[in-house]
Amino acid sequence: MVHQRVRLGILTIAHEARRVEFGYLRGQLELTAGNLSQHLTVLETAGLVEVEKGYAGRRGRTWITLTAAGNTALAEEIGRLKQLIARVDAAETGESG
Amino acid sequence: MVHQRVRLGILTIAHEARRVEFGYLRGQLELTAGNLSQHLTVLETAGLVEVEKGYAGRRGRTWITLTAAGNTALAEEIGRLKQLIARVDAAETGESG
Fold first, then answer.
1. Which class in CATH covers the domain with range B5-96?
2. ipTM of the shown complex
């Protein structure tokens, strides 16, 4: 679930700020609105992000916040990726010998 | 393509050895034979692995080898993941301040 690349990107960006705006996320990840919405629904259903609709002046805005569970899931995925990278790097070292 | 988790695992394991046997890969990645075959077909079509059928005694065996293009694709993906991890780690440091 979290290992899906777009969703990992969403969690990473949401992790950097208290909350992130839909349009910003869309621009950063170079996604269509429909595609981003689908991934957010998956993450929201899993309890990893909260999605709030609000206003900035007259304009509708959607804000995304990482939940505590989302933060944990991101940390776990980063741990797994570090192990994978260490494995590739160890093999590189072996090759040079 | 490479960022798909199972395929990244296949490339990582193939990267560690000159060639890797289908059953070993399947056990390491905890996949069904059908699922592993599908991912190998995707990787082979993209030119990232070579799949050879042979024999070990009377038994059929399938061997997987990482190609030069596969090695490059793996290195690029590892580079992208390192950037993503650095970004998450940088945000962690910011939070503690």
1. mainly alpha
2. 0.74
